[in-house]
Amino acid sequence: MPSLLKKYCTYSAFIVAAGVVGFLSDIGGALENVKKLFGQDDPLVLVTARLSPLARDPRIRNGRDQASLSLEVRNYGKEMVMLTSADLEVVHANGAKVGKGGVFGRCVLKAVDNENTPQTIAPGKSTRLAISRTVDLPGVSKFLSDEKLRSVFVHTIDGQPYSIAESIYVDELNQFFSDTYGRDAALKVTLYSTQSGDKHIFVLPLARGKDLFAKDGSLQHDWFIANWKNWDKHSIAQTSACDAIVSHDW
């Protein structure tokens, strides 16, 4: 009798265990379905990000520390994405803030849908665009002084500055941003697609910039330094892939 009872208990335990496994399996399937319904990954990925000096000219008193922001965004989804507007914030920063100036043009996105030309991105394709709102970086004009940049060699293509030879200046700019605004200071970009208001959010740490070889969405600080040294008041059009940035304001 004890042997029979032992076999019965063992068999019952096996049935219960199998039931629990089956139940957990069903839960896993349900959770996976919920994940598919509500946890879709964002099809948009940030490839590159660049700050460009807005008013570097020493004759300009106001706005010399302001910069514009341009992005390269890629669509890894299966459907077309239409970007309708964009917003920019400066977060976790001491001193750095959204600037008073702005850039304007066909490939520049403002915060209001009807003030923009929608930017469409086909599946597997990338586009460059600029954010209308600018960034105010107090003290950067003093840090990137003519004396400091005198020995910096700037790489150009068809007269367009795009990088520098010495990566140490990228490290020094990162350190300046960390010491001045805080190591967690960052730019928060929100892109909106379609009128449904879908959000695509990218956070760009100011003190963790890289160079032109980075394709992970980091700020390319070598571009910023190169365009700071070889600044041209017309080069604001460089902030976008389009040549239709028709004006800028500081």
Task: Label this structure with key terms.
250 residues; alpha+beta; 2 domains; 4-stranded antiparallel sheet; 33% strand; globular; disordered C terminus
Query: pLDDT average, as an integer?
Result: 81
Beta-strand fraction estimate? 25-35%
Profile the largest sheet.
6 strands, mixed
How many β-strands, per DSSP?
12
Distance between the termini: 94 Å
Write the H/E string, N to C: HEEEEEEEHHEEHEEHE
- Radius of gyration over alpha carbons? 26 Å
Shape category = globular
Which segments are poorly predicted (pLDDT under 50) over 5 or more consecutive residues?
A: 4-39, 235-241, 243-250
Residue share in helix: 25-40%
Number of alpha- plus pi-helical segments:
5
Structural class: alpha+beta
Count of discrete structural domains: 2
Explain what the structure shows.
With 250 residues, this protein is an alpha+beta fold. It has two domains: 1-40; 44-249, no CATH class. The protein is 27% helix and 33% strand. Strands 1, 2, 4, 5, 7 and 12 form a six-stranded mixed beta sheet that branches. It has a four-stranded antiparallel beta sheet with strand order 6-3-10-11, with no helix packed on it. A two-stranded antiparallel ribbon has the order 8-9. The longest helix is centred in the first third of the chain and has 37 residues, at 2-38. It is globular. The N and C termini lie far apart (94 Å). 34% of the residues are buried.
